[in-house]
Amino acid sequence: MLKYASVALALAALGVAQQSEWGQCGGIGWTGATTCVSGTVCSALNAYYSQCIPGTASVTSSAPATGPTAPAGALPRLGGVNTAGYDFSVATDGSFTGTGVSPPTSQYTHFTAEGANLYRIPFAWQLMTPTLGGSIDQSFLSRYDQTVQAALNSGPNVMVIVDLHNYARWNGGIIAQGGPTDAQFQSIWTQLAQKYGSNSRVIFGIMNEPHDIPSISTWANSVQGVVNAVRAAGSKNFLLLPGSSWASAQAFPTEAGPYLVKVTDPLGGTSKLIFDVHKYLDSDNSGTHPDCTTDNVSVLQTLVQFLQANGNRQAILSETGGGNTSSCEMLLGNELSYVKSAYPTLAGFSVWAAGAFDTTYVLTVTPNADGTDQPLWIDAVQPNLP
């Protein structure tokens, strides 16, 4: 990345480098070209991000750029954090051996007071239904619901993502592709719909990070089955539809996206079917390193173009994040600023992670014991909350 930044600096100095339409052209830490192609103007969206926007007059406002009109009933602008714990020890093959750890409920009032209005609360499938396809464990549901209610009660406009965190798997088997049946997958969501279906501020994240899926079309059919099942149970909640390759925002337009845009909603329309995407900023997009190497803006621009070309659909970046390092403070700030500018196509974000993670975790945004926040939250996240 540094090599290309150096080239861009050199060309800019010669006055020949120009950014393309919708490309970044400025902001704190930006080292690339600052002029735009003919017909566009480098417009400051906020301190972290300036963009080449079609037009003839400069925009110097911290307000997001005007985008497509939000569909009736669309998700509002959202921003917040994953509060992990009930997912602890879920492996990427969908196996689970733990008991889960309850996130501290004090975090919800803390973050909401600072402008957050979205919390994603992941849980292990095996905790919610110890027997595959069986009844929900009411003891665990009561424990989990206390956390959900604490988040909802932290503010009148707060929304919660109830997130099934099993990678489209149960103990190594892929849903409808050698593992759980579609009926077993639908069963847990039918029961959760009966619990939360009357609460419009609860969003159903139907599966975290499907990966290495042999048949994407079969996966899309499994997603359609869950949509049908929760609607049959009376739910009108927003539903998050995840793609493939770890819910990759980069892969979505060419892998799962063309299948998932065909998923229909028995309620009519598609405004309550939201695409669920993830993207990290470290060198291998794993979210395991403290340093960041990209701001993902070009990836998200491609995603926005795909969504707008397929019915002005919405997506949410429900996992992203970085370490408390200068590179991540700058690059995550750039990324989240772009997300904010791309509303309503990008409805918002939730960063990874707080909750039961301690302050030594590599991507922590958990507040310190004295109530102060991590540098990443202060410098990159908080400025881009709704």
Automatic annotation (TrEMBL):
Domain CBM1 positions: 17-53
Enzyme class: hydrolase
InterPro entries: CBD, CBD_sf, GH, Glyco_hydro_5, Glyco_hydro_5_CS
Entry GO CC: extracellular region
SUPFAM superfamilies the UniProt entry points to: (Trans)glycosidases (SSF51445), Cellulose-binding domain (SSF57180)
Tagged with keyword Signal: yes
Keyword Transmembrane set for record: no
SMART domains: fCBD (SM00236)
Catalysis: reaction(s): Endohydrolysis of (1->4)-beta-D-glucosidic linkages in cellulose, lichenin and cereal beta-D-glucans
Gene Ontology biological-process entries: cellulose catabolic process
GO molecular function, one term: cellulase activity
Coiled coil feature spans: none
Pfam families: CBM_1, Cellulase
Keywords: Carbohydrate metabolism, Cellulose degradation, Glycosidase, Hydrolase, Polysaccharide degradation, Signal
EC number: 3.2.1.4
Secretion signal span: 1-17
Family: Belongs to the glycosyl hydrolase 5 (cellulase A) family.
Protein name (database record): cellulase
Lineage, opening ranks: Eukaryota, Fungi, Dikarya, Basidiomycota, Agaricomycotina
Gene name, Swiss-Prot/TrEMBL: Psegl
